[in-house]
Amino acid sequence: MRLFRVKETDDRNIYKENEAFETHFSGLDIEHLGLERNESGERKGKVKLSFANLVKIHRPLLILDEAHNAKTKLTSDVIKRINPK
Which of 16, 56, 57, 74 has the highest CB neighbour number within 10 Å of its CB? Predict the structure, then answer.
């Protein structure tokens, strides 16, 4: 989770568009999942082909060690972005 735990998502490659992930998104009905979208460029308005969006689609199991320490707004925002089961 540490890789995802940032305020500004532009700072991490896992949140950036990566065409190498295109095959992982093809054939999926992803329009209703609330995924992050491109804000500019050729693919403006389309779902961002990012690792973070792939994680959100697959809804991983999240185990918080010492969860009593994970009550910050940032942690809450990251958990929403990951969309765990």
Answer: 56
Specify whether the CB–CB gap between 81 and 4 falls below 8 A: yes
Longest pairwise C-alpha distance within the chain: 43
**DSSP letter, residue 8:** -
Three-class secondary structure of residue 39 per DSSP = coil
pLDDT, tens digit, 9 for 90 and up, residues 27-41: 888 888 889 999 999
Q: Which residues contact 5 (CB under 8 A, 6 or more apart)?
A: 74, 75, 78
User: What would the 3-class secondary structure string for 57-83 be?
Assistant: HHCCCCCCCCHHHCCCHHHHHHHHHHC
Mean pLDDT throughout 55-80?
85
Write down the pTM of the prediction: 0.81
